[in-house]
Fold these 3 entries.
Entry 1:
Amino acid sequence: MMATTLRPDSKIYVAGHRGMVGSAIVRQLEARGCRNLVTRTHAELDLTSQAAVAEFFATEKPDAVILAAAKVGGIHANNTYPAEFIYENLMMEANVVHQAWRSGVQHLLFLGSSCIYPKLAAQPMSEQALLTGTLEPTNEPYAIAKIAGIKLCESYNRQYGTDYRSVMPTNLYGPNDNFHPQNSHVLPALLRRFHEAARSGAESVTIWGTGTPRREFLHVDDMAAASLFVLDLDRATYDANTEPMLSHINVGTGSDVAIRELAEMIAEVTGFTGRIEFDTTKPDGTPRKLLDVSRLASMGWRASVDLRDGLRSTYQWFLTHAADMRT
């Protein structure tokens, strides 16, 4: 498909360009020859500040916006900092979407999360499951913020005729992930713990929960490719495959693995040969999270990175950059 939104000379603002997804999107935009990318670090632009975001958009006036900035974390972080997760994400979304509209931006892509769906949603979870049940309590504040982001985009589209789109990825992993031992998501947290256990000769690694929950994992390079694919879709195609108030698109692989299986794969990749044990006093989180990706597949995109291959390449990236990690 020929690009219809992103041209080599398009002025594209990528919010969150140093994060895992944002950096992958920047790499792919640069590989496509896009030479007019606008980025700001958090120190340069606080997206929770309405005045700062307003000044930025009034000055830069980008042609398109990719909103990949977010406060993210795993179960521990979501449980510990719920106020920060809902406040910061709501403020970033509201400020960026509103000021994008005020400055005349027609094309915006908002990146959400599969945690927007009810805890006990039918599997695989289709876009139609949104707002049909109770959310997983451990990350409800974050999920509420992401749902609000979808509705911001839809509401501005309805009232002002903008073309603001939303993509909901499953669990992501890859280069530039957060490998913090407490505040990271399950895959990078396990990769780091198994790496350290293998290096120290530990006899066992203990994992939270029962190991039975099933999760879907998408490599960040696939997510970046899907994001640009969706942003590039001509409006007629996008509108024909979505609904005005149900316009978000799931992005995933369409397959999942048990946490126990994931742990065994990571043990193999890191060279850990000890026991894998499970602390069943700790929470499992959602029993299963598998996305129905038929909407995106019908438009012509499917994931291409195999999980085992992705784990190997991510571990190599971790080994190369581990010395730079302070925690």
Entry 2:
Amino acid sequence: MLELVGLTKKYGDRTALAGINLSVNNGEVFGLLGPNGAGKTTTIRLLTMLSQPTAGSIAINGLSLSHDGRQIKAVIGVVPQHLNLDNELTAQENLELHGRLHEINALERKTRIDELLEFVELSDRKNDIVQTFSGGMKRRLMIARALLHRPKILFLDEPTVGLDPQVRRRIWELVRHLSGEGLTVLLTTHYIEEAEALCQRVAILDKGSLIALDSPQALCRGLGEYVVEWEGEEHLNTRFFPERSKAAQFCNSLAVTATIRRSNLEDVFVELTGRKVVER
């Protein structure tokens, strides 16, 4: 569904992306992770044609972004990080406007709007001004808008940033449902547990380079499935092991109290980038 070859973006002397190569499969939920400044937003801007690459190529659904821009716009759906709904219109009017821009005929437009408002649980608020909506409701409406023209791939840029945990999980359920119906989803997130819960594979970017690419489970196995933690003089110490028995053996050799737990994607992120994710 998506293929990046040598994707490079420079701003003067600064390299935001340094020759990224990756592909996303049909129906896959794929995550882009990385600390601030890693190149996630730059990648999304290139994929959604808000910026042009310095070098390399992008293909979406077999179409070349450099030659088939108009056709590509018809097969992508975009939910940006920042809320960009028209607050003075109702939920239904926001979707109506989007449908007209995509030249969806009146009958299909009405049917599709009703279906999507029900899907994101906003049918009872369809005639309410968007300005009265909560942040979570606005985010769900943006997802409905992005799906209105039946895209082949959906780009979600920080889809749950700033939302409380309960609302965040409602968004997760929407993404899982879409994936179950065969839609390809690419998301960027600062929430490691979000990527772990949703993504079949993740790519970790750092300083514009791709430093890891695999399933969350495989990345954890590569690091070590078990981690021993103990308090040091200045910080928490960690050591990774492929088997619990080896972790226990090491734990028993320490002169201080230690704990054993399973490794997770955040451990992989910290080991590779040297930085913890700061949830905003």
Entry 3:
Amino acid sequence: MSHNTFGHLFRVTTFGESHGVALGCVVDGCPPGIPIDAADIQAELDRRKPGQSRFTTQRREADEVRILSGVFADDRTGGVQLTTGTPIALEIANTDQRSKDYSEIRDSYRPGHADYAYDAKYGFRDYRGGGRSSARETAARVAAGAIARRVLPGEIIIQAALVQMGPHAIDRARWDWDEVARNPFFCPDATAAAFYEGYLDGIRKDGSSVGAVIEVVAEGVPPGLGAPIYGKLDADLAAAMMSINAVKGVEIGDGFASAALRGEDNADEMRSGNGGGPTFLANHAGGVLGGISTGQPIVCRFAVKPTSSILTPRMSVTRDNRDVDLVTKGRHDPCVGIRAVPVAEAMMACVLADHYLRHRGQVGKPG
């Protein structure tokens, strides 16, 4: 299997399977001299790990990270662990696999999953939790994203939130970033979060699942990141978000809503600013024009489909093309979009770190 690496200068390669011994990543291209220790990475992993509420899979994983290479500390660094500029290898052990839960589907394809597609391509698949197609692979991305945040200037703030569950969107007039950390849905609207509790309880008790929309915002990004045509910042962001398991749509700024606007409504008008650059009067473009950051907040949203593993019997076929009705057992998220929030932040951080280093290499420090 190829294509396990993304990025150009800040490159991330992930490895491991959902029910294997461990998963992890190798981060290549991280500059030397950046303070980083396991606690920095663990803080991000703890936000993504399963089993933290009744609204996520009850698989119990500590997701404890080990740094295997690429850092160094001694008396010359004051005891502070710094990156050396060499590849940083991170490992996260799997400790709560229940592979027997999947024995009944070893020869059958779960509808909505990648089972058939993997088998058609490789002639073989790891049926235990989906192997590489499992959302558990995203733990390695979150670990890499924690390093990417350290590469970026401190004024760049990356935050994500769940803004819609099923057909129920938040009220943006009640948006409060502080609220995201106060509820199990990473939702910025306290009223919507309270509604989601009862709503998702009903979905979960029915043995079903529901989709979600995640919004990720990066503030403090300097103008100039990205490149025209084939190195566009928004194109790389879209590809990064689309690579997250179960994502079926991505938009930047107003996205598809732009099609309903007139030109005078869509254009982000400008006036002279105090800092030498323009002041934008709107941000329909989501902080990127011509593939290059404008200095405005970068805004990206993506849609996550409902978890395909549900208790309702679904029609499918076996490897030898026999009809079968499947009920998928095991421990699954009734809304996998919830735990996609820290993954979204990680992917935004990795893309921005890559473009930051690319820009610095071509024209010098941004800003």
